[in-house]
Design brief:
Length: about 290
Amino acid sequence: MSEQAHQRRSSAVRRGTTIVLPPIIKAMMKRDWHGQEHIPRDGGVIIAPNHLSYADWAAVALFTYQAGRYPFFLIKSSAFDVKLIGPFLRDCGQLPVHRDRADATLVVKELKDAEASLRAGGCLIVYPEGTASRDPDLWPMVGKTGVARLALTTGAPVIPVAHWGAQVILPYGSTKPHLVPRHLVRMLAGPPVDLSAYLGRPLGREVLRGATAAVMADITGLLAQLRGKEPPAVPFDPVAARRAKAARDSQTGPPGVPAEQPGAQAEPGAQAEPGGRADPPGDDPSRKAAPA
């Protein structure tokens, strides 16, 4: 297929999605949405939402479309390998992203494709957390640096978006949606994240982590407004949580052998975890402050 023919096909598929998908998504959920005026009507822009469920992409897509923009998502690459779904995603202009970061060439290409989409005036939806929240209370986690890198490289504004309710329709890890009765999904967009302190600086670790923290702080603040609750002072860090679990597991002996040495006692006030282990009171390693 020639490039011109592909573009015509892609344009037709996108028009089709704007006709077919909005009524379906509306039928799935009640909606209480605010802040769409913060999404610019033209020019490259990054929409940065929190991630709770496999159902929230539908809510975010409709929210963005009703603000006057056609949404382009970064979607895990395995979806593009599925028969019929892969060609459909490509025709819609969606962008693949590989979870395996071992191939540096592939990572660079994916970033370049995303940058090209933004520079062409696209509205790119990127989940800063990279996956659904593992925070026990579903607050946003420590973010990955992709959104910050794209924003600082292209100059595209980052619009923070928080939503709450899609996780009831389809809880993370479940394949059975809860569609009856319709559940309310609340969504709130804020003004562009202020990244002026990081513009024009080399994209080193300090700059990327600082800009990422600014994005996540704005998303968390919006979610706190929606939920009417105070968020944790320090966001959940899944990497720190995995390391802490691995450390605990390494201290646990083979099956049938107690983890504690003879005479060892749990510190008073320690809380036992499933499996009989006890963690001493104190800071949760998964909530230690991320480097700025």
